[in-house]
From TrEMBL:
This is Twinkle mtDNA helicase. The gene is LOC105911559. Residues 412-666 form the SF4 helicase domain. The lineage of its organism: Eukaryota, Metazoa, Chordata, Craniata, Vertebrata. GO terms for cellular component: mitochondrial inner membrane; mitochondrial nucleoid. GO terms for molecular function: 5'-3' DNA helicase activity; ATP binding; hydrolase activity; lipid binding; single-stranded DNA binding. PANTHER family: T7-LIKE MITOCHONDRIAL DNA HELICASE, TWINKLE MTDNA HELICASE. It comes from Clupea harengus.
Length: 705
């Protein structure tokens, strides 16, 4: 699967490397063949997550260290013009008549002009042919164009060729397996019209969508799967209208009035590229409302009649492969939720979509989420009319800033950023991890800087913060091994022999984290690193980049360049990157020299530029150096957000390689990711359970999910 990602987007220097990590662990404790047998006989493939791992385990990683050779929009335009290929300049894509053609005709009759275009992503050059669904890199597209011009004809692909063009056999089989599972669940799910009235009402209440009419649910083909009490949202191919996948959302009762929901997609999230509602879009539609949740789309559509689509993985992620489907809209309104994080996300996503056509709904007391607005009878059309343009203005008055200022005052805590779950003392001082900031960490050689920042970043990543590592000093495999140990809070290598299944269950969960690694090792040029970071932000919605460490970017430059000036230049570049992409950058910098006593702000290598540009400066103090007991202390010496500084002790645990909390006595697999939903439904869950036990409904055969 990782291979698909890489070839698909032509960015081979970003690889999730859990495969290698397990490989290393396996060697460490002479991992036996028993586990492989279990896998090949499918004994572990009881859940979609395991299916995914089973498939990916057999893949070999693509070649690392391939050069990043980004193509610019100017290059693309020039190339197409020089080849005499007419193109349309869209918002985020260039559109050409596709040189590819599927050998099977369009069977649905639903195809329109849009379906025959080939869309080229203006940022990456990767393309998507709507009719054949072939995706590829800019280089591959150039090959197709050359082929077309040589033969003077359209390149005819069979559907199978089309599939194989972008996917390995393993990948295809895995995908087909997932699709079959999805199909089974879909077939066993009930349309709302087939539920008893009482049951239908309770299900709606359970999912806080009492005001969503049955007609709307029918229009969007939403179903209910009784065995797991889940809403099932379909993913239809916009071209053939066949079922490509599903998203299941389930509610679990929580203490108090809140419920927890779990979400599962088939295919799994990395491949779930559904814009829910796309099959209902007409060619003539020129405006759309983008939401972060399916029920919000139902609410918008029902209350306003305006076409609405849901992002596949919540408010903060828009895979670029979906951009071609949004090209037809000259007005896109982003209404992603009711919290400040959704507001930030909408501003970030508007950059991808082209800000000139984007309008943003600012969350506020009178502007809740679409689902809540419908429930409390607030006019959704009115809220949409209040949307503000996303295009930044050069000069503004307080009148335009007023809402933002008041919003910041009201949501002070939430704006402080994502809070660490493992480092409460860091929350006390820094308040949270905020987008667009630059953090500098220093500490004596070997004091544990990498280990500490690895745990901090992992903590955030586990909460959904897309993270990209640039580990220039230690290999990605070693780093991922440290992270996996920190994630499980146990020595997994000791468990591999006794409980291989448990280890792989942990690895499965770890693999689902939004975590990526640059494959640069040793010294590298800052320009290439920055280019890779920019691409990662665009492709994977990364919001935290860790660079370990700055010194590895210095050696590539000419010997004649002044070292301090060079470092200043690199720091400015990272600062600018953080600001322009809204991405947090954490930069490890070695201290100036081995100084006696504890380190100070001035101990950081180079001029004062690093500490001037940084929003946060952290020092990992080694107490042994000042006659202490060997413990470490983290000192926050700069905090631009609210000025609070301070220090707290860090206790290192050698078993778990962690600076936080005790080791797990019996490591258990972590719970699946969960989120909170409104509390309307706790009672409804109980009632539904009662109703289902009492009623004489015939339950379909349970399918193991
Ligand atoms: N507080 C600690 N006490 C003892 N060992 C530690 C501590 N913190 C980290 N280590 C161990 O020390 C080794 C080096 O740690 P790490 O690579 O994190 O240090 P570093 O400061 O990043 O090193 P460098 O200066 O070379 O970049 C690792 O094996 C790690 O497990």
């Amino acid at each position: 699967m990782q291979g698909l990602f890489l070839s698909q987007f032509g960015l081979p220097s970003l690889v999730p490397c859990i495969h290698n990590t397990l490989h290393t662990l396996r060697h460490l404790s002479s991992f036996n063949t028993h586990y492989s047998n279990l896998l090949s006989h499918g004994a572990l493939a009881t859940s979609p997550v395991l299916i995914h791992i089973r498939g990916s385990r057999h893949h070999s990683l693509p070649s690392l260290q391939a050069p990043v050779n980004p193509v610019t929009i100017t290059d693309m335009r020039k190339y197409l013009s020089s080849r005499g290929v007419p193109f349309q300049d869209g918002y985020s894509c260039l559109c050409i008549a596709s040189p590819l053609k599927a050998s099977c005709g369009d069977r649905s009759g639903a195809a329109d002009k849009r379906s025959f275009g080939l869309y080229i992503d203006k940022t990456t050059g990767s393309f998507l042919c709507m009719q054949t669904q072939v995706q590829g890199s800019w280089e591959e597209l150039k090959e197709y164009v050359a082929l077309l011009q040589r033969d003077g004809n359209t390149a005819i692909l069979s559907p199978q060729q089309a599939c194989e063009n972008a996917r390995s056999l393993d990948n295809r089989l895995e995908k087909e397996r997932e699709a079959q599972e999805g199909q089974k669940i879909w077939m066993a799910s009930k349309a709302f019209s087939d539920l008893l009235k009482e049951e239908s009402e309770y299900v709606k209440a359970m999912f806080s969508m009492s005001k969503i009419s049955s007609a709307t649910l029918k229009k969007f083909c939403v179903k209910f799967y009784r065995p797991t009490q889940s809403l099932v949202f379909p993913w239809f191919s916009p071209h053939t209208l066949s079922l490509k996948g599903i998203k299941m959302v389930s509610v679990r009762e929580d203490v108090g009035t809140n419920n927890l929901y779990t979400q599962l997609t088939l295919p799994r999230p990395a491949r779930y590229h559904n814009l829910f509602g796309l099959s209902l879009i007409q060619q003539s539609d020129s405006q759309v409302v983008l939401t972060g949740h399916e029920v919000d789309t139902l609410a918008v559509s029902q209350a306003t009649g305006i076409p609405s689509l849901t992002l596949p993985r919540g408010p903060s992620c828009l895979p670029p492969v979906l951009l071609p489907y949004l090209e037809q809209f000259s007005k896109v309104t982003l209404w992603l939720g009711k919290d400040p994080a959704s507001w930030e996300a909408s501003r970030d996503l508007s950059r991808k979509l082209g800000p000139s056509r984007c309008w943003l709904v600012r969350p506020g007391e009178h502007q809740p989420s679409p689902r809540d607005a419908l429930a409390s009878r607030v006019s959704l059309s009115g809220i949409l009319r209040n949307a503000v343009p996303a295009e930044p203005q050069a000069v503004v008055s307080f009148r335009q800033l007023r809402q933002d200022v008041l919003g910041e005052m009201k949501n002070k805590d939430r704006l402080a950023g994502v809070r660490w779950s493992r480092f409460s003392q860091l929350n006390r001082i820094l308040k949270g991890h905020r987008k667009g900031e630059l953090t500098v960490l220093t500490g004596p050689t070997g004091s544990g800087k990498t280990t500490f920042i690895s745990e901090c970043a992992l903590d955030l990543c586990s909460q959904g913060v897309g993270t990209l590592w640039g580990s220039f000093e230690i290999s990605n495999v070693r780093l991922a091994r440290v992270m996996l140990t920190q994630y499980t809070r146990s020595r997994l290598e000791d468990e591999l022999e006794r409980q291989p299944q448990l280890c792989h269950t942990w690895a499965d969960r770890f693999q689902e984290l939004p975590l990526y690694f640059m494959t640069f090792h040793g010294e590298h040029n800052i320009k290439i690193v920055l280019e890779t970071m920019k691409h990662a932000v665009y492709l994977y919605d990364i919001s935290h980049v860790v660079i370990d460490n700055l010194q590895f970017m210095m050696g590539q430059e000419s010997l004649h360049v002044d070292k301090f000036a060079l470092q200043d230049h690199i720091i400015s570049a990272f600062r600018q990157f953080a600001t322009s992409t809204s991405c947090h950058v954490t930069l490890i910098i070695h201290p100036r020299k081995e100084e006696e006593g504890s380190l100070q702000m001035a101990s950081i290598f180079g001029s004062a530029k690093a500490t001037q540009e940084a929003d946060n400066v952290l020092i990992l103090q080694d107490w042994t150096r000042v006659g202490g007991t060997g413990r470490r202390m983290l000192q926050v010496v700069k905090n631009r957000y609210d000025g609070e500084v301070g220090a707290f002790p860090l206790e290192f645990n050698k078993t778990t390689l962690s600076f936080s909390g005790p080791p797990a006595k019996n490591p258990q697999p972590p719970p699946k990711p969960q989120g909170k939903v409104r509390g309307e439904s706790s009672k409804a869950v109980k009632k539904l359970l009662l109703l289902q036990t009492r009623s004489s409904l015939n339950r379909p055969n349970q399918i193991k999910v």
